[in-house]
Design brief:
Pfam families: L31
Distance between the termini: 50 Å
Largest sheet: 2 strands, antiparallel
Mean pLDDT: 75
Keywords: Ribonucleoprotein, Ribosomal protein
Strand order of the largest sheet: 1-2
Structural class: mainly alpha
Protein name: 54S ribosomal protein L31
Strand content: under 5%
InterPro entries: Ribosomal_mL60
Order of helices and strands: HHHHEEHHHH
Helix content: 55-70%
Number of domains: 1
Low-confidence stretches: 104-124
Radius of gyration: 20 Å
GO molecular function: structural constituent of ribosome
């Protein structure tokens, strides 16, 4: 009826979930931090495997194809390709599910090779300089 918890009428209000077309500066900062966290995980795994004289095809492919956060253009940081959009780009904040699926293949490849925890624990002396949450993931 009336009050703060009344039912919404979609005919009068338009979209029920309104997603702003622009990311706020706080959302951009959190996204940059997430990108840097991915870069640090890849660097940690690469360094740990290099100490053992090993390599992983998925990490080598990631390093060859994916730029680090500092090298990315803002257009690539904050938008993703979407063939249904007018200019073929869509903001990342409206495609959260797509981001998690894009990382799924990379994570699945590492999991097939022994998982994050096993690869990160390759060398115990290297583990002392890394954050504990990376090593205790499994």
């Amino acid at each position: 009826m009336f009050g703060p918890f009344r039912a919404t009428n979609p005919l009068s209000g338009g979209l029920l979930w309104k997603i702003p077309w622009r990311l706020s500066k706080f959302q951009k900062r959190r996204h940059r931090l997430r990108l840097r966290a991915v870069d640090s995980v890849v660097a940690t795994l690469d360094a740990a495997l290099a100490k053992k004289g090993q390599t992983l095809e998925a990490i080598e492919r990631w390093k060859a194809e994916m730029p680090v956060e500092e090298e990315m253009l803002p257009r690539d940081k904050y938008t993703m390709f979407d063939r249904k959009e007018k200019k073929y780009r869509k903001g990342i904040h409206s495609m959260a599910v797509a981001l998690s699926f894009s990382m799924l293949n990379f994570r699945g490849t590492i999991a097939d090779a022994g998982g994050f925890a096993r690869i990160a624990k390759v060398d115990e002396s290297f583990a002392e300089s890394q954050p504990s949450w990376i090593l205790n993931a499994g």
